[in-house]
Amino acid sequence: MxxxxxxxxxxEIQQLLDIVIHSLYTDKEIxxxxxxxxxxxxxxxxxxxxASGNTINQPDLPPAISITTGENxxxxxxxxxxxxxxxxxxxxxxxxxxxxxxxxxxxxxxKKPDANLIGQFGVGFYSAFMxxxxxxxxxRSHLPDDQGWQWTSEGAGGYDLEPANxxxxxxxxxxxxxxxxxEFAQPEALEHIIKRYSNFVQFPIELNGQRLNTxxxxxxxxxxxxxxEEYNEFYQYLGHDQTNSLxxxxxxxxxxxxxxxxxxxxxxxFETAGMSRTESEVHLYCRKVLIQSKAKGLFPEWxxxxxxxxxxEDLPLNVSREMMQDSSLMKKLNQVLxxxxxxxxxxxxxxxxxxxxxxxxxxxxxxxxxLVTDFTHKQALGKLLRYESSTLPRETRTSxxxxxxxxxxxxxxxxxxIAPNREAAxxxxxxxxxxxRKFEVLxxxxxxxxxxxxxxxxxxxxxLRSAEKAELDLADTASKEGxxxxxxxxxxxxxxxxxxGDRVNEVRASxxxxxxxxxxxxxxxxxxxxMRRIMKSMKRESESPLAxxxxxxxxxxxxxMARLDKMRVxxxxxxxxxxxxxxxxxxxxxxxxxxxxxxxxxxNELLEQVLSAKT
Length: 615
Ligand code: ADP
Ligand code: MG
Description:
Elements: E1 5-7, H1 11-23, H2 30-51, E2 65-70, E3 73-78, H3 85-91, H4 99-109, E4 132-140, E5 148-153, E6 159-164, E7 170-177, H5 187-198, E8 205-207, E9 210-211, H6 228-239, E10 247-253, E11 259-265, E12 281-286, E13 289-292, E14 307-311, H7 321-326, H8 328-351, H9 353-373, H10 378-382, E15 388-389, H11 400-406, E16 414-418, H12 422-426, H13 432-437, E17 441-444, H14 449-456, E18 458-459, E19 462-466, H15 486-500, E20 506-509, E21 518-522, H16 529-538, E22 550-554, H17 559-570, H18 572-589, H19 597-614
Parallel strand pairs: 2-8, 12-14, 16-17, 16-19, 20-22
Antiparallel strand pairs: 1-6, 2-3, 3-7, 4-5, 4-7, 5-6, 8-9, 10-11, 11-14, 12-13, 15-17, 18-19, 21-22
This protein binds adenosine-5'-diphosphate and magnesium ion (MG).
Magnesium ion binds next to helix 2.
């Protein structure tokens, strides 16, 4: 009687396999990296289990990896934790990671799918099918009483599972190479690839009986002994990345905790490519024994782009991972590591602004996320912000501290203006008074910045203030020729308020406008027009409309206002139309006009009147 069980792959895995088998032609060699990385993981897990005092199958068999080549076959063997029947079904056939779907979508949409990323999405095992027409996995778990199993698949049509006798602990993977992948069975070629990807594996690797790597935990070595090349190779191995990292921080500390740590920032932020949320990939070790890969809680969420290793002698080996996550030790580690990394960023921003610029480009949203969610590191994060400013050339960004250094003696606040881009900022009516008084204004183009400023609140005891909310007057009050007097302006404002009724809260003469006839300001002391906009966009249909809290400030020195004042006596109907239009224009400038239809209708009527007066 046959004991072979037939299994289907989960639909997503089958879909992934179809793409892997039929559409991935480049970078085939990465299967070596992925399978060795799995073997190394299995060895790390074994070492952890053993170190925590558990009984295992074949305790004297040390964790190691060996690879052999044969006629069109490659065999990878590890003496790691192995897999039970349940593990095989669970791990090699179903999706374990949330990112897999996103990866599939990306693969399916890409013209040239990038196989390289496969390991980052937790489906590295399946890269074996890029080169193999059949994959056989023989595995026996570390659990003392477990028997061995054989898993076989040709990719399409699911996989077979059957018992296998007399297996040692661990996993053996046999790849039957496809016709177009037989070059990988050449020992010289394979050796080259293994060395390239696996120099940093913490366990001995042998190829056809010959030792290839020297095992050393790079993070425990002294910085001066490590070559640039070694760091790069380690990062590429650890990060499943093809390019070098943007930043690297290798540091050790003795107090308050003993830490040896090697952290990397990838050159690209994988979240911007429309991909799902990345997971932190910093692995936690204790004296070179892996305690937890992708350790949760080691860094705050907003540093989830970091990759690397943290080794601390202070960690206990025998606590459960769940307990570890919330332990006070983990919190302390988190605090120390985060503080150190932020300090590193600050140093880098001063030492090498060009590279920092690249970093900021890729990762500013993470810093901002931290700033609004994490009170502890608010000030340190504030130092890392960079913005364009009215006094600097475009695309030059300043820190808030440098802004403070440049502040005029009579300037009390740090001013910022939220705008979609530089042109909009410079032509904004809110900017006029600053331009006239030569006060520097930071230009903020990211909608998140509004919240960032709210949370940061101040820098070096200087309050951050929205340009809209600045209580600033134009310095030269000498009344301009043709400008309305204070009484005239007041009377005009009163008349306009009567026309607008509930549409505005208040109309008053402005002391801040130069070239614009009028501007909308929010009556709420703490509200800016961009916040209003966000509130509006979040409001649901069913809710009652937001109360209008707009004030209109008019510019008594603008010719339009002087003429309007005359016209309201001469032709009240026309003057009313013009006043309405001025209000709507200001709303447009503030981004607050929702339905332009009535405004366009009126504008057309006004144009018609202009033309008929001339013809
Ligand atoms: P990832 O390594 O990111 O989890 P993979 O597709 O490479 O994704 O592997 C899937 C899972 O299969 C692993 O998480 C592991 O549980 C299991 N696995 C793969 N190779 C081995 C191995 N050599 N020994 C033990 N388990 C393995
Ligand atoms: Mg893997």
